[in-house]
Design goal:
The chain is built from 17 helices and 13 strands. It has helices at residues 22-30, 48-51, 70-77, 93-101, 114-135, 154-167, 185-188, 197-202, 209-213, 240-253, 267-275, 287-302, 325-332, 345-352, 356-359, 364-377, 384-387; strands at residues 11-17, 35-41, 58-63, 84-89, 106-110, 141-146, 173-177, 217-219, 223-226, 256-260, 278-283, 310-315, 336-340. The termini are far apart. The site of magnesium ion has 4 residues, from α6.
């Protein structure tokens, strides 16, 4: 929407929730010349219409709770991406800790001088505008996680990588589940979505960013996900054409799009490859998987997929199973780019529906995935000649 950069224009805010002292603060903010209080609503659900449309510069949410109100934040985020400030009253040390990792700009413990609150609001609005300006004209990167074998850890890596990108790299991240028949990315994130990619592609009308936003589920870590269809038979309606358009639109709305896949080179996978910036090819220390990864590399070459975009990920790299990384590398004629250790924390977190990078950031697995997130978030200089590693022709 058309908010000018000029400092003379009032900052448009909306206040949801309530806490001790929030009513008086609202009155003071409404009287302040630098701000325009567009409205207030004690319940987030009553504010849906007012929050939507991208016209707000900052949203303030007031709470008496001692912990961060994740449900309310998710409710607000369904409608607006405006910077969010939490107003809290009373004992809030846990809330402050949680806020460090959450998608919010600031926490203000009431009572506060009105001028302090106005300053925090204007500062949040300013950084929000900067982020928006930086995003215009930029295209998100697509990172596709693939393996020709089932069970190699694609979904575990995709869900944790996407979580790390959103939470630790501060990227607007979409996790797209293209394991269209049996996708389980949402379950691994502990989400039970009611809308999926199927609903999106069968909905009438042109697909654009706003429409896409209506079909995504949001994880409290600030990550968006477009889940796989709920029924396997609905998979075939996600055609190559629809998917190509979906990826284009997603690139406009997000910095990073992480794609989880099934172990096949079918139509949707080929449409995804067309737009993929980094292909993470997941391998493990067993002979059949190495053989199939080698075949995949050959197929990718036949498809003219640039070898420079392929990064081999060795999952469960530390397991002692009579095969070493060097042997994998010589069989693939390609270096392993990322090693991910086997970690007991992984199956435990899968069963709890909470990605390890979020639940146990100190776990070895988490460190490896965070490192991977750092690398894929900063695009390498595409230097075709230098590091190209050709496969030997069969
Ligand atoms: N690094 C790891 N350490 C420990 N366990 C792991 C690791 N990677 C994967 N796993 C375990 O292996 C199981 C299978 O992983 P995952 O579901 O990610 O594989 P996949 O390649 O997506 O399989 P599918 O092809 O069936 O979709 C997970 O439930 C997880 O518990
Ligand atoms: Mg999977």
């Amino acid at each position: 929407m058309s908010h000018e950069n000029g400092s003379s224009e009032a900052t448009r805010i909306f206040v949801t929730g309530a806490c001790e002292g929030s009513a008086q603060l609202c009155e003071a903010l409404a009287a302040h010349p630098d701000l325009e209080v567009v409205g207030t609503a004690e319940e987030v659900r009553d504010a849906a219409g007012a929050l939507a449309g991208g016209h707000l510069n900052v949203v303030l949410h007031a709470t008496n709770a001692a912990t961060l109100p994740f449900d309310e934040i998710a409710g607000i985020r369904e409608h607006t991406r405006a910077p969010l400030i939490i107003l809290a009253a009373g004992e809030a040390s846990e809330l402050l800790d949680q806020a460090l990792d959450a998608d919010i700009s600031d926490v203000l413990l009431l009572p506060q001088l009105t001028e302090n609150v106005v300053f925090a609001v204007r500062k949040a609005a300013h950084s929000g505008r900067r982020a928006q300006a930086a995003a215009i004209g930029k295209k998100g990167r697509i990172v596709t996680v693939f393996s020709p074998k089932g069970g190699t850890g694609k979904t575990v890596i995709a869900t944790n990588l996407a979580s790390a990108l959103a939470k630790f790299e501060g990227k607007r991240t979409l996790l797209l589940d293209l394991d269209l028949q049996f996708g389980d990315a949402a379950i691994m994130l502990g989400l039970e979505p009611d809308k999926t990619i199927y609903d999106l592609v069968v909905a009438p009308g042109e697909l654009d960013s706003e429409k896409l936003a209506g079909y995504i589920a949001r994880h409290p870590a600030g990550l968006d996900i477009l889940p796989a269809p709920l029924r396997p038979e609905d998979a075939e309606l996600v055609t190559e054409g629809k998917l190509g358009r979906l990826l284009e639109v997603a690139r406009e709305s997000y910095d990073m799009i992480v794609v989880d896949t099934s172990p096949f080179f079918h139509g949707p996978m080929l449409a995804t490859l067309d737009q993929t910036d980094d292909l993470l090819l997941v391998c493990s220390l067993d002979v059949p998987t190495v053989k199939n990864v080698r075949l995949s590399l050959q197929t990718l070459e036949l498809l003219s997929f640039p070898t420079t975009k392929v990064q081999v990920v060795l999952n469960r790299a530390n397991t002692k199973v009579g095969m070493k990384q060097k042997e994998v590398e010589s069989a693939l004629e390609q270096r392993v780019r990322f090693q991910v250790p086997s970690d007991r924390a992984v199956p435990l977190s899968v069963n709890r529906g909470n990605p390890v990078v979020l639940a146990e950031s100190g776990a070895d697995f988490s460190k490896a995935v965070r490192e991977m997130a750092k690398v894929v978030a900063t695009p390498q200089q595409e230097d075709a000649g230098k590091k190209r590693r050709f496969l030997a022709k069969a």
